[in-house]
TrEMBL record:
Keywords: FAD, Flavoprotein, Iron, Iron-sulfur, Metal-binding, Oxidoreductase, Transit peptide. The keyword Repeat does not apply. It comes from Carboxylicivirga sediminis. Signal peptide: none annotated. This is D-lactate dehydrogenase (cytochrome). GO terms for molecular function: D-lactate dehydrogenase (cytochrome) activity; D-lactate dehydrogenase (NAD+) activity; FAD binding; iron-sulfur cluster binding; metal ion binding. Residues 536-563 form the 4Fe-4S ferredoxin-type domain. The keyword RNA-binding does not apply. Its EC number is 1.1.2.4.
Amino acid sequence: MGVKSNIGFFKKQITGVLGKEQVCSQYIDRYAKGTDAGFYRLVPQLVVLVNSEWELQEVIKAASSHFVAITFKAGGTSLSGQTITDSVLVEIGPEFSQLNILDEGKRIKVQPGVRGGFANAQLARYGYKIGPSPASINSAKIGGIVANNASGASYGIITNSYNTIEAMRIVMADGTLLVTDDKASCKNFQETHKELLDELLCIKQQLENDPTVYAKIQSKYQLKNTTGYGMNAFVDFDDPIDILMHLMVGSEGTLGFISEVTMRTIPDEAHKSCALIFLPNIQEAAKCIIPLRSCCVSAAELMDRNALRAVENVDGLPSELKELPDGAAALLVETAATSGEDLKGRQEEILAKLSGLQTLFPISFTDNAKDYNTFWKVRKGLFTSAAATRPSGATCIIEDVAFPGEVLAEALPALQKLLDKHHYSGSVMWGHLLDGNIHFLVMPDFDQDWQMDNYKLFMHALVKLVVHQFNGSLKAEHGTGRNMAPFVEFEWGQEVYELMKRVKRAIDPLNILNPGVLINDDPEVYAKNIKQLPQSHPLVDACIECGFCESSCPSRDLTLTPRQRIAVYRALNANVSEISGKDLKALAKAFEYKGEESCATDGLCALNCPVGINTGKLIKDLRFESKSRLSNAVATYIANHYGGTSAVVKGALSAVGVLQKILQSAVMEKGGHFVHNVSGRNVPLWNRYMPHAAARVDVVSDVKSDHKVVYFPACINRMMGNDASMKDKDSLTKVTKRLLNKAGYEIIYPENLSGLCCGMSFDSKGFRGQGMMKLKELEDALLEASDYGRYPVLCDMSPCLLRMKELMDARLELYEPIEFTLSFLKDKLQFTPQNETVMVHVTCSSTKMGLDEQLVQLAQLCAKEVIKPEKTGCCGWAGDKGFNLPELNKSALRYLKEEVPERAVAGYSTSRTCEVGLSVHTGLTYQSILYLVDKATENLTQNR
């Protein structure tokens, strides 16, 4: 019986348990979900999503009974080939993400689907954070962080997962659950798995009987080391349950599944500062480390000259970067303290300790939040930024080694020399120098025949240099994976390697958990299945599929993420050789919905991407290219007759409003679904928060004043009024007018208002020319109304305003509701906070304009309690897409309702269409923030 037939039986069994929606067999799902941040690619035969511990147990039991290999995947930010497979991929689903803060932040209990950055955001209110701090922390999930023993910038051997772990829930290779802090569970496990625990104690005894090997293990873990299994567990612990728990850390899913972990946290000191120190060469940078280790230093991050070149054009970085000589290097040094006075003392100590070293410029610390955040954002995104500079068609291979501090000044130049010898002179080097941990990037083009042989020679030379010449670690924090599996024995020696294989056989006797990772008999597995990164489109060619973009994507739990869209698009457009014609055809058909139609094109992915890739722009390009002559003609007609089109829409909304008054909601809902489906999704799906038609805009100003403002009501707000649930029946245009008059502003409306539109609704659908035509019409009208920039312009919808800001004449002073109110109305109105709890939703456009905190600040002027949800980002309504593709909105807001407390009375935002979707999925009425401002304010002069 072959492997495929085994997987067939497995699929049938597990589909019966989980349901079809959690078992993905379509090629597009297998290809997309099989993508991770590493430089290998395998396509799984099946992908299974698990949302609970019980589901995971059922999957493992089925895999065990059918002898099917399974590989676990969390955030997919692994770099060494740990989370790819050509068998069954088990992916952590969105519901497997519970989190509990314990002991006022001193401990945290968390499931594997929680992202590290989110865990830190919850801990921050208590003044703590988790110990591991990988650069990918905002995308990486706890399951992967622990399974890879991630560390990061801050003393990895002290605060990594291994050293901060307190308890675990582990699903073993036979489906048994072990809860390490539950006495009953441990006792039962000791009875049912006595042979396994005895074998672990036997291995421990064997190590203790060999003083040389025992000392070697103790010595090698004084450095960061994730090569092979964590054999220090046998040195550090006596209880076999403790040994087993710590073996799970860094085991890369080859020994079991960590379904929950309890970790001790570390203080997150409130006062932080950093200095970007420039040095003449990398050797001089290495000399800083021993002095810095005697100071209170949180991090000392190395960036060589090539790394600095990759980021020298980033806004906010010192201009000196472009003038640095060849061979120069930089250290980003951070220190932190509980008070400003202590912080100053620590800075002075660092300056004193480094005073004897040669620097290119005087050392200067900054605690300015903008500079501090810029420096660290650049450093954390350095891998992606550097990889984006690769030559066309080149592969990106990242290596991760560590050297003892006392040999760094010799080891780093030796490493550079080795890179030059093998034609990798353009390699980028950076890393956590405080731990002697160095990352470097090589970018071979394997389409050239000699490059593969050269790479193999380089790898063998690298292994000898790290292990034999400098007694270092081949993998410091990225895990062994396929990348270093053939070299584990070389680093550890035959005795320890044989014990590692005994560990694998004892815990996973059927070898079904991630086989080939960490332990592999193929001496060339590191050079096989290398991922191709071919050119396909200028907008996304720089992507290396790191996955930093995924956490903000509204379709991530519905169809594809930005990384996955790019991976599939490349496969379709770059002649990826390993994909068959049949699979390519299936890929293209499925991409129409999963890649194009379900993309919100909100562009938030660009904010998380270190090189600013906006996958939404790619999708808009594809929509533009796919438009027929007929559809373009229709769009042009609508654009040229926009006032009439708006009237038709308002008429339809009025008719629906009348029906809603006559018919029961249940009838409206069933009828709405029927019409929506029969029309092929072309008729918007009715919901009980469907807006009624807006009242006609009264363009006569009620106030004459020296304070003037141009008010442009967005076309959506001119068409869509309130819904049946809203207590305030006045339209937004009327409320805005009342508010501006209250503040003493004379309102100027642009001419021919009914026909004006920013063009965004055209552009997002791929009608780029029509969108620019409408934008230019609006620009001309606003220039005339504002006396060519003399008066500020208010647009009552943030998404429209962002487009206007990005593309219109710079003379126009353009504002959306949040910034306009804080800048122009705050000092002209008397605010009285209402005694109520309100929700606020920051739209994608407001986020891109940096108005997250300003919205909260404005709402706090108006209400006693303001709640901004932490799990919810883009609402996925995507202009008007929520009416026709409601599943995107539903998926994006899947966590929102649980974040709305019963005491909340209303919700506020700055986009009418987003507000519809927010209302649908919370049962709470959402309106423009201007309704709340109007409710909470009075004219200052009237109040005196």
